[in-house]
C-alpha cells in the first residue's frame, strides 16, 4: 500500500493542528484559573463603592463601582473618582473638603460648603456623615455622596 505525499502532508498537518489546539486549550484553562485566583485575591483586599457628587446647581456626577484598597477612606474615594480634583485642608478634626472640581474654591458661594452623606438602604434615605472624610472608611457596596449645600438653610440641607 502506497501513501501519497499529499496524504502524508495532510496527516502531518492534522496532527500538528491537534497538538496546537491541545496546547492552546490547556493555556486557556491555566489562564482562566489564574484569573479566577487573582479575582478572589483582589476581592479579599478591595472594596467597591459608588459616589455621587451634587454641585448644588442641578448637576450630579456618578462614579459607579469604584475599586479601592480595603481600609480606604471617603477622601481616598473622592480623590480617585475625581482624578485628584479635590481641595481639602487637614485640621484638628480631620480633612475638610473645600473644593471639588474647583467648586467651593475657584467658584464659590457665600454659606455654601461641601457636605458628605451615606445612603442608608434600610431606611431608604441619605444620612449626613458624622466624621471627617479621611476618617470614614468605605464599605464594600456602599453609596456615598457629596453635595455643595447652602448651610444657611440648616437643618434643611440639600441631599446628594
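Q: What amino acid sequence fits the structure above?
A:
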Amino acid at each position: 500500500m502506497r501513501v501519497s505525499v499529499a496524504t502524508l502532508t495532510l496527516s502531518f498537518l492534522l496532527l500538528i493542528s491537534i497538538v496546537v489546539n491541545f496546547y492552546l486549550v490547556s493555556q486557556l484553562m491555566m489562564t482562566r484559573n489564574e484569573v479566577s485566583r487573582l479575582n478572589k485575591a483582589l476581592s479579599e483586599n478591595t472594596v467597591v463603592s459608588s459616589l455621587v457628587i451634587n454641585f448644588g446647581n442641578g448637576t450630579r456626577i456618578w462614579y459607579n463601582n469604584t475599586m479601592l484598597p480595603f481600609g480606604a477612606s471617603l477622601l481616598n474615594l473622592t480623590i480617585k473618582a475625581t482624578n485628584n480634583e479635590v481641595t481639602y485642608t487637614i485640621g484638628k478634626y480631620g480633612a475638610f473638603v473645600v473644593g471639588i472640581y474647583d467648586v467651593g474654591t475657584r467658584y464659590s458661594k457665600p454659606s455654601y460648603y461641601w457636605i458628605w452623606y451615606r445612603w442608608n438602604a434600610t431606611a431608604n434615605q441619605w444620612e449626613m456623615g458624622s466624621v471627617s472624610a479621611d476618617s470614614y472608611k468605605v464599605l464594600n457596596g456602599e453609596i456615598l455622596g457629596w453635595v455643595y449645600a447652602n448651610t444657611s438653610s440648616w437643618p434643611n440641607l440639600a441631599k446628594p
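Q: And what stands out in the fold?
A: The radius of gyration is 27 Å.
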